[in-house]
Amino acid sequence: xxxxxxxxxxxxxxxxxxxxxxxxxxxxxxxxxxxxxxxxxxxxxxxxxxxxxxxxxxxxxxxxxxxxxxxxxxxxxxxxxxxxxxxxxxxxxxxxxxxxxxxxxxxxxxxxxx
Amino acid sequence: xxxxxxxxxxxxxxxxxxxxxxxxxxxxxxxxxxxxxxxxxxxxxxxxxxxxxxxxxxxxxxxxxxxxxxxxxxxxxxxxxxxxxxxxxxxxxxxxxxxxxxxxxxxxxxx
Lengths: 114, 111
Fold this sequence. Notes:
A: seven-stranded mixed beta sheet; B: mainly beta; five-stranded mixed beta sheet
């Protein structure tokens, strides 16, 4: 079956612009996670959704970052007033629920802020 | 964050077993030990997880020390496709049930 998909695969933007990154989880998965990965580092947790609600957003670095999942399926990560330090690969993962030990990751969106 | 310590890199010859160590001396009784791997230019991929007993699946085995302060991921026969960064992660109430990845072990498989 289809895995987690993310669009776009690459996004180049200028400092100060607004960007949206999309994640399509595996059908039926209620839990959805966003991570950010900088070069040479492991993924860094940003936010977790259970259904439509953000159950844990403790990893969001500041209020320029926001994510939504209005219908409990597709999620969008939104970054306002982008900064060069936001350049990274943004990964999305989904799982059948929080109790599941396995998260299924998408291929990521590479964001470059010039 | 519940911390794990792994070697930065390891090498293995193709078709030989690989033992990837992980230290987690501050593990709590409710933390699960998870292993994920990340191939170049891909998202992480689940490998295995366990709590106290050793675990086996089609990809690997997980050996957990009796005191749970360390664990070893065992790949029984390394192939070139196993070249990846392997992450050992603790997950439980102390981590908010979230994954906190470290920098992992970069495994090179030599043909």
